[in-house]
Fold this protein.
Amino acid sequence: MKKLVLMAVAVLLVLAVVVAWETTREPPREPLPVNTRMGGDFTMVDQNGETFSSDQLAGQVVLMFFGFTHCPDICPATMARMAQLYKQLEAGGHGDDVQVVFVTFDPERDTPEHLRQYLAWFHEDFIGLTGSDEQVEEIARQYSVVYMPVGEDSQGGTEFAHSDFVYLIDRETRVRKLYPVDADLEEIKDDLRTLL
Amino acid sequence: MTCARCFKRGLYLLLVLPWLAFAGEIDEPELFIDNMWVRAVPPVSSTTAGYFTVTNTSEVPVTLLGFTTEIAGAGELHTMAAQEDGTRRMQRLRNVPIPAGETVEFAPGGNHLMLFRLARPLEEGEQVELCLEFDATAPYCLPFEVRR
């Protein structure tokens, strides 16, 4: 009889532990949906003046931002945030798995050499993409990026009105999420973890 | 005149003279300006933006007309305005009203000071002077910290 009671208590204890573990652990995250309306293969020119194909990004999780280097506010602020995030990822051992890419829609002023100097200040691993007007128009169309030069009466020369999302792209070069430029870095890191 | 009267007059003058000396400025509105900073940008960039917060603690409206600085070839007031098509567009502002008793913020993604043709690369952490020009006060020349 005593044995039976002890066994019942042991079973109950095991059950209690299992229930407690099941109820306290975080539920598995839903995978990020694939955005089938954006993305695709592209060919551009990188910051070293070399032809750069979208195939070269396969296998890495990519954070892509479209902007122009003469932009004084949103673009440097976004790239500084990307640098901050990337350094945290590097510290966590994920630097090689993630690639930050800056695509200009101002190829006239953003030459490869100019992009190289601009991006190296944020992080030497960042990739900059420029190209012909046609190449820039094509990649902007693929990612539904809106940009247009505006004729301000400003001394700053050509400015652009532009959309300003950061694109999260998975290892198969599929777009998985778009972030506003002031998105919480912890949210981006959480999403990255599901793709790494 | 007794010594007591002499003392009283002296005391009166001590109290009144500062007010008389200040009389020429008494109509000048009081502005409180803080959180001044300029964005650090790569040395290859010739353009950057400045930010601050201004509170008009007086009872009269004030208008910010522009600013000057030795570190840039030109400076303008700009804002970033959301467009119907989802883009954001930078627009030049001729002036920015600072209503009486209110605070106006110059912050990333909104109103900002545009600095064109930087005279030299700005070092993170250094202080650079910008002189904010208002319609109803003398310029406010203040140190702006260079930050990333």
Summary: Strands of chain B lie at 31-39, 48-56, 62-68, 72-82, 88-93, 96-98, 103-106, 112-118, 127-134, 140-147. The radius of gyration of chain B is 21 Å.
